[in-house]
Design goal:
Elements (H helix, E strand, L loop, with lengths): L1 E6 L10 E3 L5 E5 L6 H9 L8 E4 L6 E5 L1 H7 L3 E2 L4 E2 L4 H28 L8 H18 L19 H14 L7 H11 L21 H4 L11 H8 L2 H11 L17 H8 L2 H35 L5 H27 L11 H24 L1 H22 L1 H46 E2 L1 H13 L5 E5 L7 E5 L12 H16 L11 E6 L7 H20 L4 E8 L2 H8 L10 E7 L7 E4 L9 H14 L8 H16 L4 H5 L4 H16 L3 H4 L7 H17 L3 H8 L8
Helix pairs in contact: 3-15, 4-5, 4-15, 6-14, 11-12, 12-13, 17-18, 18-19, 20-21, 21-23, 23-25, 25-26
Amino acid sequence: MIRSINLSGTACFGANPVHVGPFGQVNFMWGPNGAGKTTLGRAIATPARFIGTALDTAASSEFSTRVYNRDYVNETFESVLPGVFILGEENVELHAEIAQLEAEIREQNRQRNQWSITLGEATAPTSKLGQTEALKSALTDAAWNKRSTVPEELSEMFRGTKNSKSTFLSRLLDVARQHSQPAEPFEVLKEEGRSALDQSATKQTLIADIQVPSPGAKDLLSVRVVGSAEVALATLIDKLRNADWVKAGREHVNHSRGVCPFCQQRLPNAFVDTLDQYFDAHYSDQLTEIERARQKYADEFTEIKAQLNALFETLSQYLPAADVQLAIDGLTQALAQNQALLDQKVEQPSSIVDTLSTGAEEAALRTLVQRANERIRTHNATVENRATAAAALIERCWQTFVRGSLSVEVARYEAQVVPLERAAAALRDKIDTADRALVDCTARLRALQRRVTSSVPVINEVNELLASVGFTNFKLHASTLVADGYELIRQDGSAARVDTLSEGERTFITFLYFYHELRGVPSASELADIVAIIDDPISSLDSDILFVVSSIVRQLMEEVVQGRGRVKQLFILTHNIHFHHEVAYQRHNQALGSRAFFTVRKQHGNYSVIDSHGSANPIQTAYKALWNEVRRAETTPDSANVGLQNILRRILENYFKVLGGVQDDEIVRYFSGQQQMVARSLFSWANDGSHTILDQLEYSPSGVSTAVYLSVFADIFQKSGHGGHYRMMMGLTEPVAA
């Protein structure tokens, strides 16, 4: 899933990149309000909204992201909530077939992805296609460097391939497929070449017509390309015809921190989202098509200019150079004007562009080519027999070059490339078969899911949870407006208005809805695997509800660790130490999986920072921190805290008096002699208050007094029947010796 994130372009963390990770299956992120937790969650969910932010994900990892935060509460909580489909229980056989199909689809996707990676692309050095391309490149370089082995008298054989390595390789491979042995040695062929390859008696090749490029995307060039008309802002933009100006201004809005970069007024809420909706995917697709057409035309224009330069040299051998230059300049200028018009369309998508026709210029140049070819045909007619001999000689020269000079290189290439080509063909067949099987399985799965999906289980489960924590003012009910949807109703059956619910009620109901949404059956357009981000789900909740939410989060954590359900990775962000302790606490025999802890903290007058703590939980309760001091004093008495007695007092006060209601006299009477005095002094401090240690410095512990106090402290728990709590907090597995 997500291994780490390179965070950049955020207001609270600064413009410099911040690396956060590595992430585990379950990730805990604690920080105070305003430190940047919500920004971090948004960046993980949608890195594209922050310029320069990028996720590092596992190979072939495909997932969707679900986020619970303030945005989710505001956007999801409407009078009618969309249904979350949960598999019903009326047909066990259908469920079994669905599970089998889902497993089969996962396996087919896994195999297909692996086959695709193995097949790869020509630019991937370890893939089959990449290895094939590397072999071709190595053969080309070796052959290119060995052209000097051909005698000068026979160098005519390379005509047409001197300026193109791809053409050179194509000719080489064609000869290798047609011939398995070399022809006569070059020394023999050279004698024949003195007459057959004489330039004054060689048949000339006819000049081919130039293929002039035509501008693409003509349906978009003749129309105004603007954003979505469904957005309220579209009417104004269309009226002002300033879509291009608005598009350019978006770049400034992204860096203006909520203020209009032009008038310096505060931007309305969701203004940026409205712009994003206006410049939607359809608009982006149109721009991409226009840019693709412009780039294609530019590439073809560059190529044809080189061809025209070469054509000038060729035509000038048969026609007046001034006539040739005039025709070529005319065509070049027409093509350049079309290139400028395409550039204008890219810069101003809302403009209407009418490209120029190059028909007249092409016709003028084609006339010159025809005139030159007439002269070439006349020339060739006189050397017809010699040309035939020359062609046969050149073919034999190539045969000797490929199977003689390059015999080792070509043999090595053929031995290595044949298995690669066979493997690539087999992989393509497997991918095609898997694609067909995936289509069939997916169609069957969707058909079965339509037969067994229902919102009823979600309604029942959410209502049971609401009732269990005393939420009796409203409940979920099947919607009468949306098929398989929900609505909130009061006890009398009337619809529950959103503005009558408390913040805690809104938070709780939307969290329950979010939880069941994670467990829902994915739609046809959804990815099955989910990365879930839970951002402070306990705002304004009382302790009972906090306990329920914590229990649900722990259950979700177990599902992630055990690989059950759709959620494969979980991020939990909170400012509440108690909630953090509830969900991060390691319980007995609990499967932890891979856990990672992070803290987000604000720096005074500076950007926030994110600290990684690996698998160690940095957040502790105050009570546990006191016990940690006792454990440290037990291990190294000489380094004991000067306030150790006060620490012991606070533990006794909290455990026995505040929580247990046990009186100190009941415990002191278990002791006698010096131990009774020590025990009474501890409880006396508990009665006097926490400042006695500051006034009675003669009680500062030495190595001996520390041991005495620790021993009495342990005996207080042992003798009062609470030795189990002492052993748990001290991390002991064996009973304390009497």
